[in-house]
Q: What sequence folds into this?
């Protein structure tokens, strides 16, 4: 039963995180690759506030949320300051940089050994409780994202992807839209990270990282349409696909590699098929 | 003084490895506008192929030829994988596809060879003693070959008609094709050249230290950052940025006060901080000039 609960939590958490990626990458066309950084950052800040600063769950959660929001603001400042390509590079580099930070500043982060024994709050003691909390959060996000798509903000996001100049000509600040969506994606990814940290009750520098980016980017790219249904279906597809591998008798040490192989091949195929469908094609002789 | 020189030489070896990655990324980006970050995994795969043949034959020549063959195959595959993104002007999707391709390759290496480190050369590495400092033979080959190749590439790109053709393919592909240049073939040749250069680095890392499935990743990420710090169209900036990213963290780690307790694991963190500062101060490259836009 524990396995099914874990898979359910994984689906819910991936969806929560994918909403941010869906809004930034698929809708706004911002290649915000620091999603795993926010994921890991909030998980770690929650654990550190709980274990090192001895704060209660409520205070630690609010504190880590505020810190993740600050991280989102910092990343959105980069978005405003540098070119889009440099932003993509910096956000990709931030994954490596943050992992190095986690490994190096061991007094705070526990280094390569990580932090174990993260305390769950009273209302999330058992796995079914986490399923319930993350499921409720997912349903709320389904409603919120649906509303976003119908609201002027959702149209502005799509406008940002189509033409920044056109958006500016309609008196909508592209930078403001970018800032809001990056902060939102950062917060959602952080919340997903803290839920996962509470589930596994252990964190190490490999938490998040490029495997997490591949998972979330697969979902976001698969659900290019501004539709919550597509996002839910793609989350189910991407999360459940590697679970099929469990029915084959692979060496357990190779399971992680097999999973990544399946994800990455799937992503390559998807991206190749999607190429040209969302940009004006240019004919080259 | 000896310690300083030794650190400098060690950083030069790492810096040259990164430089060859950055130059390969620069060349591929020049002709296709795509950052081919899978080069890290390609270099690793080529190095493993070298290792396999070397274990069976013990011959450097046979292993080198086999590895070269694999590098060319990867160049061909990379071209066909990423050409569609270039044609559709989807460069960021191309970057993501390349990243995924790289991770697929690394996972494949992990499945076939498992994650433990593999040494191509057993025993003590041959060392060249220069008196004040020492350098391993593979390290010396890396530095000398790397610098010579970079100078040749910079000369060809900046001073010869071939370089002008290369740069013009990015500017106006149709115009270059109308002048009788087979732009597709040039792009494929550049992909193959990039894979050969990075494959060479992979083999040299294998000879100098050991092979692991993820050894190329940090190098290609550092090369990728160097490309953007230096300026994506300025090979001079790329060279300077590469050595900046390799030397500064190394000296920070070795010359910082003891109580700060900096170690090798801090390196990528410093690389990121330097990148952040450089990109914020000089967003268009280290040697970029302010351009007035009307």
A:
């Amino acid at each position: 039963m524990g396995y099914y609960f874990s898979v359910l939590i994984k689906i819910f958490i991936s969806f929560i995180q994918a909403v941010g990626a869906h809004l930034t990458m698929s809708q706004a066309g911002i290649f915000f690759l620091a999603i795993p950084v926010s994921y890991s950052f909030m998980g770690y800040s929650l654990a550190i506030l709980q274990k090192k600063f001895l704060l209660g769950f409520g205070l630690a959660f609010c504190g880590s949320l505020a810190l993740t929001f600050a991280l989102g603001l910092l990343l959105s400042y980069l978005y405003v300051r540098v070119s889009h390509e440099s932003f993509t590079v910096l956000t990709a580099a931030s994954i490596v940089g943050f992992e190095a930070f986690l490994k190096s500043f061991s007094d705070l982060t526990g280094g390569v050994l990580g932090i174990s024994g993260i305390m769950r709050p009273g209302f999330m003691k058992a796995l079914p409780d986490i399923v319930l909390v993350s499921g409720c959060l997912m349903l709320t996000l389904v409603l919120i994202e649906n509303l976003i798509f119908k609201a002027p903000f959702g149209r502005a996001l799509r406008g940002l992807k189509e033409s920044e100049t056109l958006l500016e000509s309609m008196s909508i600040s592209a930078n403001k839209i970018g800032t809001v969506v990056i902060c939102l994606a950062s917060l959602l990814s952080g919340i997903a990270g803290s839920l996962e940290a509470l589930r596994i009750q252990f964190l190490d520098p490999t938490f998040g990282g490029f495997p997490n980016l591949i998972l979330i980017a697969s979902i976001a790219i698969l659900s290019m349409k501004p539709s919550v249904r597509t996002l839910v279906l793609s989350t189910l597809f991407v999360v459940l696909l590697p679970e099929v591998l469990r029915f084959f008798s692979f060496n357990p040490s190779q399971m992680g590699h097999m999973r990544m192989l399946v994800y990455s091949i799937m992503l390559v195929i998807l991206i190749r098929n999607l190429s040209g469908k969302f940009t004006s094609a240019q004919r080259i002789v | 003084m000896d310690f300083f020189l030794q650190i400098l030489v060690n950083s030069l070896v790492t810096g040259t490895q990164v430089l060859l990655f950055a130059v390969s990324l620069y060349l591929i980006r020049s002709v296709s506008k795509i950052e081919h970050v899978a080069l890290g995994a390609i270099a690793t795969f080529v190095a493993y192929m070298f290792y396999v043949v070397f274990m069976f034959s013990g011959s450097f020549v046979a292993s080198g030829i086999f590895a070269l063959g694999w590098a060319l195959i990867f160049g061909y595959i990379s071209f066909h994988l990423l050409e569609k993104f270039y044609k559709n002007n989807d460069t960021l999707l191309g970057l993501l596809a390349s990243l995924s391709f790289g991770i697929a390759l690394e996972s494949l290496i992990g499945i076939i060879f498992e994650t433990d480190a593999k040494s191509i050369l057993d025993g003590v590495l041959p060392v060249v003693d220069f008196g004040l400092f020492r350098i391993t033979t593979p390290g010396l080959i890396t530095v000398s070959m790397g610098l010579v190749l970079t100078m040749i590439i910079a000369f060809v790109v900046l001073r010869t008609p071939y370089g002008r053709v290369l740069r013009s393919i990015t500017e106006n592909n149709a115009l270059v094709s109308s002048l009788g240049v087979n732009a597709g073939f040039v792009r494929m040749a550049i992909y193959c050249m990039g894979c050969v250069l990075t494959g060479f680095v992979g083999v040299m890392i294998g000879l100098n230290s050991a092979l692991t499935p993820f050894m190329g990743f940090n190098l290609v990420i550092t090369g990728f950052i160097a490309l953007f710090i230096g300026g994506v169209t300025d090979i001079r900036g790329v060279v300077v940025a590469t050595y900046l990213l390799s030397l500064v963290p190394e000296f920070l780690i070795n010359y910082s006060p003891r109580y700060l307790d900096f170690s090798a694991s801090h390196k990528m963190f410093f690389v990121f901080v330097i990148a952040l500062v450089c990109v914020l101060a000089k967003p268009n490259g280290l040697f970029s000039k302010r351009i007035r836009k009307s």
Observations:
- The CA atoms of residues 48 and 109 of chain A lie 7 Å apart.
